[in-house]
Amino acid sequence: MGATVTAVILAGGRGERMGGVDKGLQALRGRSLVEWVLEVIEPQVDELVITANRNLVRYLEFGYPVLQDRIRDFAGPLAGLHAGLTEARSQLTIAVPCDIPLLPADLVSRLLTALQRADAEAAVARTGQRPHSAICLCKTSLVHRLAEFIQNGGRKVADWHATLNLVYVDFDEQPGQFRNINTLEELRDVESFVRC
User: Fold this and answer.
1) Between 45 and which of 7, 13, 87, 161 could a Cys-Cys bridge form, CB atoms 3.0 to 4.6 Å apart?
2) CATH code: domain of residue 16
3) What is the pTM of this model?
4) How many domains are contained in the chain?
5) DSSP the chain
6) Per residue in 53-112, pLDDT tens?
């Protein structure tokens, strides 16, 4: 396949539904959520960066570059993706939120295969017809289009995807791998699910 891939771990959110805590640093079975994501994604990519807007020193301790949003006024996950696309040295970039700790080990390869077969600009994971919009493999060259979209007021990931030639990739056989954690209750639920 030949394409190189940079992973952008999105850890710059406000964690509002979890009481304003930094979600990426919350513990699951003794390890932070971001550590779970790093462990599963790092072997699948050529380069990895973390985007964060607080606790930068803590995130640097994981050994990867840490980027802050370049676009201010909190543009959400798209601002994190923009920061990652700006710095990525690979042809493709995959965005992965820090609050989905159980992602599959074949995530990148399946998204990449679908993107290349469809000659698409982006590939998004989906389970049960539900897109996981924040998990998106896209061409790094989209950085300027994304910047323009954000500068024109765009904030929703799905709205950004609607402007792209996009393919969905179904992971229906492993829906549990895409469980995201937005609340302390969901964190406890995933803890019982992990059992390790």
Assistant:
1) 7
2) 3.90.550.10
3) 0.91
4) 1
5) ----EEEEEE-----GGGTS--GGGSEETTEEHHHHHHHHHGGG-SEEEEE-SS-HHHHHTTSS-EE--SSTTT-THHHHHHHHHHH--SSEEEEEETT-TT--TTHHHHHHHHHHHHT-SEEEEEETTEEEEEEEEEEGGGHHHHHHHHHTT---HHHHHTTS-EEEEE-TT-GGGG----SHHHHHHHHHHH--
6) 899 999 999 999 999 988 766 668 899 999 999 999 999 999 999 999 999 999 999 999
